[in-house]
Specification:
The structure is a single chain. The chain has four domains: 3-11 and 687-818, Sandwich (Immunoglobulin-like), CATH 2.60.40; 14-26 and 580-680, Immunoglobulin-like, CATH 2.60.40; 44-308, Neuraminidase (6 Propeller), CATH 2.120.10; 321-576, TolB, C-terminal domain (Neuraminidase). The protein contains one helix and 71 strands. It has a five-stranded mixed β-sheet, with no helix packed on it. Strand 48 and strand 49 (533-537) form a beta hairpin. The longest helix has 7 residues, at 611-617. The termini are close together.
Length: 819
């Protein structure tokens, strides 16, 4: 059996510190997410079918992928808007390989996902070089896993392997010196590549090396010419299907390019700018009916079988939700900004109503932002250069004009006091308007020199008539009286408590506490009425409780908090979390004996914990009271904590693990009481070899077998070119991988083998580390066939600086078994 030596190069290790009493604080837990409607589309552009018959649809303007079975039943949805890896930014083309990996073109790149939407790889970037793109459109995968991309505005097809390594490109099928504009791409079972061309109104066929085999255009079909063809696919018999986009049809051709049939037309099969086409193993044809915002399914004769989906502005679908308000009945009004409408939900997220029409006339909406509801149920909406008042059903009542004579007002926040006065922030002109209940301007508060106001954004009014303003640029909260006189200024730029980075929305609860969406810190802060921090939650991300540019915020009478998660296109709801955390289990258990001296100490909690507070509250000590140093490793969403001693525990000794009451959950609730566990370690036997040593370079190990595996990881690996090794007793090579690398089956010679591992960076610098592995071949006269297990235990954390630059690394040695 091959021995394994594991080398881990880490960038951060957290060591336990002396305990201190953690201040109790309240916290909020995510208890709901309201998001885009299922089976609704906004410009579906791409469609493909996998080998299991599942249909994948690129819901382009919703920046997501929807997956259905062959009957149109929704299986799953994934994707979110953004330009980071794993996010989608105007996706167009899609393909699925035989293993279920999904390839999507968007924003001058190709991204590879698992079927469930987890990112596997991403490549590309704007440019004209190999592997760069300019408006990639279609994508296809052949039976060998090679990926073909229609690089539309670079006028070429590019070919990659399954991991995104560039292989080849081709172009030049145009006529008269004109550029090609490839859109769709498909591959048949024989490896031939089919391309639709937007400019030449034709389809072309190439072999796998890019040699042009044939070109089919309008004269081949004996019907009206192709007009802006986009999608293309090939069935198992070699028939070719073209999305003849601007002719609002799909054409089926045989393998000679002869027209077989046409899809689309009257009797339920009408198409409106179809962008893509796919065929399943039974010959059914699926069409992304792009401008009808739906999917259509036909049989192989062109008979419409079914269609599903509707325009993605349907109920519950949100696009850039901004302002939020709650009425006295607990209904939630949402300014659905990019859909130019108001949506209404009950407190549980159940859709009630929506209203609004795009435009700038009375009763119409143009990117509405702030919203408020008065005690009678009237709804106030800030959009364009005005505030409008509606009934709760969307009937227009009046407009509050913010007139400077140049239509430059840009209201973002609106609030109503108990007397019916309306307050609106004009962030463009750095002022605040106060109107009476009939819409007449009472006063305008401004700061022309920016000494106390720079960019007013959100506004709220408390029961006493005090007005609270978020100042987006000054990173502070401004408190005014009803006449506009300054009462308080609190907050500053930063990421701590009562510190902000672009405060946007603001709301008050019945006790006068202040809730603020901290836009660029991607979190929510709760302050008391004097501006002292009470709690905060959230950080950048897409999971529940995480935000991407939170904007509007509202609090209902029961204390539930509603947040407009702007770039995630959703509303999140939160409730006060008051339940203390519990320790579900610990290993070793209390009273356990014969514990391996090299083992870690594992704690399992019933909910995510605040890691810093556990760091402070957890101690491990010997029977003499000596504190044991070590570090914590967290996993499973901060519910599992492993304390790893920095040196092996003593043999046949008693230890105590103490978790003080200051340990808190992620919401800030403290554990009710202290927990203590004692255990006793075992006595080592002859089968255990403990290897210790510092510095790491020159560490010596012993192997029983003639080969070893070396493996490790380099977290700061973005500029690593290669990892190589050399054994001074013979043998050398290149490791597989860089960030995580592996060197299998390093052959050992009798005696000491000095093995040097070298990391080379793009700058030309190298870092090297050497270890020694001793190997003694077994005595041929000894008993043959013995298979006694032995363990080589690597323990301790050793800091080292590798020669030649490249920074400080920590090598945490882990346990391995040797036979």
């Amino acid at each position: 059996m091959t021995a394994v030596i594991v080398i881990a190069l880490l960038s951060l290790t957290v060591f336990c510190t002396l305990p201190s009493t953690a201040e109790a604080r309240e916290g909020y837990q995510a208890d709901g997410v309201w998001f885009s409607g299922e089976t609704q589309f906004n410009r579906p552009t791409g469609v493909t079918v996998d080998v299991w018959g599942y249909v994948y649809v690129v819901d382009s303007s919703n920046n997501r992928i929807q997956i259905f079975d062959g009957s149109g039943a929704l299986m799953t949805i994934w994707g979110r808007q953004g330009s980071e890896e794993g996010e989608l930014n105007g996706p167009v083309g899609i393909a699925v390989d035989s293993t279920g990996h999904v390839y999507v073109t968007d924003a001058n790149r190709v991204q590879k996902f698992t079927r469930s939407g987890d990112l596997v790889a991403s490549w590309g970037g704007i440019g004209v070089g190999d592997g760069e793109f300019n408006g990639p459109w279609g994508v296809a995968v052949d039976t060998s896993g090679n990926v073909y991309v229609a690089d539309t505005w670079n006028h070429r097809i590019q070919k990659f392997d399954a991991n995104g390594s560039y292989i080849a490109q081709w172009s030049g099928w145009g006529r008269g010196g004109m550029d090609e504009y490839p859109t769709g791409v498909a591959v048949d079972p024989a490896g031939n590549v089919y391309v639709t061309d937007l400019s030449f109104e034709l389809a072309t066929k190439f072999d796998a090396n890019g040699t042009l085999l044939s070109a089919w255009g309008s004269s081949s079909f004996n019907e009206s010419q192709l007009w802006g063809p986009q999608g293309v696919t090939v069935d198992s018999s070699g028939n070719v299907y073209l999305a003849d986009t601007h002719n609002n049809r799909v054409l089926a051709l045989n393998d000679s390019g002869e027209l077989v049939r046409t899809f689309g037309g009257p009797a339920g099969g009408e198409l409106n700018r179809p962008g893509s086409v796919a065929v399943d193993s039974a010959g059914n044809v699926y069409v992304a009916d792009t401008w009808n915002h739906r999917m259509q399914k036909f049989d192989d004769d062109g008979t419409p079988l079914m269609r599903w989906g509707s325009k993605g502005g349907g109920e519950k679908w949100l696009h850039g939700p901004t302002g939020l308000a709650v009425d006295t009945a607990g209904n939630v009004f949402v300014a659905d900004s990019k859909n130019d409408r108001i949506q209404v939900f009950d407190g549980s997220g159940r859709y009630i109503d929506d209203w609004g029409v795009s435009g700038d006339g009375d009763g119409k909406l143009d990117a509405p932002w702030g919203i408020a509801v008065d005690s009678t149920g009237n709804v106030y909406v800030a959009d364009s250069n005005r505030v409008q008042r509606f009934t709760d059903r969307g009937a227009f009542l009046t407009a509050y004009v913010m007139d400077r004579g140049d239509s430059s007002a840009r209201p973002s926040g609106v609030a109503v006091d108990t007397a019916g006065n309306v307050y609106a922030t004009d962030h463009q002109n750095n002022c605040i308007y106060k109107f009476d209940g009939q819409g007449a301007v009472v006063s305008v508060w401004r700061d022309d020199n920016g000494s106390w106001l720079q960019c007013p954004w959100g506004v709220a009014v408390d029961a006493s008539g005090s007005v609270f303003i978020t100042d987006y640029f000054a990173n502070q909260i401004v408190k005014l009286d009803a006449e506009g006189n300054i009462l308080e200024l609190f907050g500053r730029q930063g990421a701590g408590g009562a510190e902000f980075n672009g405060p946007a929305g603001i709301a008050l609860d019945k006790d006068g506490n202040i809730y603020v969406t901290d836009y660029r810190n991607n979190r929510v802060q709760k302050l008391d009425s004097s501006g002292e921090p009470m709690t905060m939650w959230g950080h950048y991300g897409h999971e529940a409780g995480q935000f991407r540019s939170p904007t509007g915020i509202a609090v209902d009478s029961t204390g539930h908090v509603y947040v407009g998660d702007y770039l995630n296109d959703r509303i999140q709801t939160f409730s006060l979390d008051t339940m203390p955390p519990s320790l579900m289990g610990m290993r070793p258990a209390d009273g356990e004996a014969d514990v391996d001296p090299a083992s870690s100490i594992d704690l399992v909690f019933d909910e995510p914990m605040d890691q810093a507070s556990v760091d402070e509250a957890l101690t491990v000590s010997s029977s003499s009271g000596l504190r044991i140093s070590g570090y914590l490793v967290w996993s499973d969403g901060s519910t599992l904590c492993s304390f790893v001693p920095s040196a092996m525990l003593q043999q046949n000794a008693t230890y105590a693990v103490r978790l003080q009451g200051g340990a808190m959950d992620a919401a800030g609730n403290g554990m009710p009481s202290e927990i203590e566990v004692t255990f006793r370690t075992a006595t080592a036997n002859a089968t255990t070899i403990v290897v210790e040593g510092s510095p790491l370079s020159g560490s010596q190990y012993t192997a029983e077998n003639p080969t070893v595996d070396l493996a490790g990881s380099i977290l700061d690996s973005s500029t690593v070119v290669s990892v190589t090794w050399i054994n001074d007793r013979g043998g050398s090579g290149v490791a597989s991988g860089t960030a995580v690398w592996d060197i299998p089956d390093v052959k050992l010679s009798s005696g000491v083998n000095n093995i040097t591992i070298t990391v080379q960076y793009a700058s030309g610098k190298t870092n090297s580390q050497a270890i020694s592995v001793a190997y003694q071949p077994p005595d041929p006269t000894s008993q043959y066939g013995s298979d006694i297990p032995m363990e080589m235990v690597f323990i301790g954390v050793v800091a080292l600086t590798l020669a030649g630059g490249g920074g400080l690394y920590l090598w945490r040695r882990r346990r391995s078994s040797i036979r």
